[in-house]
C-alpha cells in the first residue's frame, strides 16, 4: 500500500480567485516556498537545504501546529496557464495540492486556481465536507493576501 492509498477520510476542495498581480508575479510568489508563511496565516515553512522543492509547512499555533511534508512533483505550462503539483507525504495529510496561474483580463491581474485532495486518517467521514469547506475559505483568504 502506498502512502496515497492509505486509509483515511478524503478531504477535497477547489477554488479560483482573481488577484491584482500579473501572472508572472503570482507564479513567482506561489513558487517561493519560504514566503508561504507571509500570506498563509500561522504557517512556518522549513525548506530542505539539499532539495528546495521539498519542504515542510507547520500550520497552527506553537506545538499544536500540523506538520505537512510536501514535495513538488510537477511544474508545467499548458498554453498560457502554469501548473504546479505538490505531493503531500504525511505524517498526517497524504495526497496532493495543485495550483495554476493564468493571465486575467488585464496585464496586472491573474487567476489563481488552488485544488487539494488529501486523506486525513483520524477524521470522521461526516466531517469531510466541513473540513473541505474550511480549507476552501482559508485558502481563499490566503490567496487574497498574496497580492499584498
Taken as a percent bin, the fraction of beta residues is over 45%
What percent of residues adopt helix (DSSP H or I)? 10-25%
What about the largest sheet? 7 strands, antiparallel
Q: Structural class, from helix and strand content?
A: alpha+beta
Number of strands: 7
Description:
The protein contains 3 helices and 7 strands, in the order βααββββββα. It has a 7-stranded antiparallel beta sheet. By secondary structure, the chain is of the alpha+beta class. The chain is globular and about 45 Å long. β3 and β4 form a beta hairpin. The mean pLDDT is about 90.
SSE layout:
Elements: E1 9-19, H1 23-30, H2 36-39, E2 43-47, E3 54-59, E4 66-78, E5 81-91, E6 94-103, E7 110-120, H3 128-145
Antiparallel strand pairs: 1-7, 2-3, 3-4, 4-5, 5-6, 6-7
Quick tags:
20% helix; single chain; alpha+beta; 45% strand; seven-stranded antiparallel beta sheet; 148 residues
